[in-house]
Amino acid sequence: MAIETRNKRNVTFSMASMSDLVFLLLIFFMLTSTLVAPNAIKLLLPQSKSKTLAKQTITVYINDRFEYFVNETRFDEDNMEAELSDKLAGQVDGSVVLRADQSVPVQHIVVVIDAVNNINKRYNTKHKVILATRPK
Q1: Which of 97, 84, 115, 83 is nearest to 55 (CA)?
Q2: How many domains does the chain have?
Q3: Please, are residues 44 and 62 in contact by the beta-carbon 8 Å criterion?
């Protein structure tokens, strides 16, 4: 006499719940990646209607506390020319993108422009300074 059980166990694994989980994770990471700010230094740029597109070599930031940053590394105004000279070494016509807060006095912007002009005179190069703005 063979005894059979009424409740048979199913040993197969359903992948439907796994694919739902993968799609939920994909949506989560896509949404959170768009919330990441591209600039680490918070600035309120001045407004402008014009657009200038250039290949940027270095980015110089000046925040509302008049602190200078080159590619997110803080430095003093006295070391401006040496810092920019190190970053621009070996390039003839690089672009320095200046991202200054709208409350920064013009004198702090002129310090960066003068440093780039001195580098151009010393090494006979053609580096440009571009002031970054936000659209109007």
Answers
A1: 97
A2: 1
A3: no
Both structure tokens of 127: 């580096």
Query: Do the domain assignments include residue 77?
Result: yes
In three-state secondary structure terms, 125 is coil
Enter the DSSP assignment of 88.
T
- DSSP lists the bridge partners of residue 102 as none
- Tokens at 123, concatenated: 């090494």
Token pair, residue 56, equals: 């940027």
- Domain enclosing residue 82, as ranges: 47-135
Model-wide pTM > 0.70: no
Secondary structure tally for the chain: helices H, strands E: 3, 7
pLDDT 10s digits, 70-113: 988 899 988 989 999 998 888 888 899 999 999 999 999 999 99
Query: Does residue 131 fall inside a structural domain?
Result: yes
22 part of a folded domain: no
CA neighbor of 77 nearest in space, from 62, 91, 92, 90: 62
Q: 37 pLDDT exceeds 60?
A: no
